[in-house]
Specification:
The chain is mainly alpha-helical. It has helices at about 5-15, 15-30, 35-40, 45-55, 75-110, 125; strands at about 30-35, 60-65, 70-75. It has two domains: about 5-75, Arc Repressor Mutant, subunit A; about 80-115, no CATH class. About 60% of the residues lie in helices and about 10% in strands. It has a three-stranded antiparallel sheet.
């Protein structure tokens, strides 16, 4: 199976609101049991197990059997791989564009003498209470 196929499994698994809720529950309660997860739904335990199987196939949930209890943990790696694939190259681009905007705004402010306040600075603003420019 290729990484692209793995991503397809992740998208399929996350396509169900029930599976997203299960994933949220497991993430919030690491090591919880299947029974604890099933207790949050008005459906059969078998239906919840079906959803858990799909989440496990997508590697979004890791389980370990302890006696008769099956413990569940969230695995964030597949989601991180998807995030990295589609955002990393773009985040650098947009970060540099935001820096360009910042410099452009600062340059305009400096030319106008507003220093980001939206009003022109005056010597009285810099030295309140001074008597410069006053004729006695």
């Amino acid at each position: 199976m290729t990484p692209l196929d793995d991503m397809g499994l992740v998208f399929d698994a996350l396509g169900s609101a029930t599976r997203r809720t299960i994933l949220d529950l497991v993430k919030a309660h690491p090591g919880c049991s299947v029974g604890a997860v099933a207790s949050h739904f008005d459906t059969t335990r078998v239906a919840v197990m079906h959803h858990l199987r799909q989440l496990e196939e997508a590697d979004l949930i890791v389980s370990r059997k302890e006696g008769r209890t099956r413990r569940l943990w969230h695995n964030p790696v597949p989601i991180q791989l998807i995030y990295d694939r589609w955002t990393t190259e773009y985040s650098g681009f947009w970060a540099s564009k935001m820096v360009d905007v910042k410099y452009a705004v600062e340059q305009q402010s400096t030319r106008r003498g507003t220093h980001g306040t939206g009003r022109t600075t005056d010597i009285e603003d810099l030295h309140p209470g001074s008597d410069r420019g006053c004729v006695a």
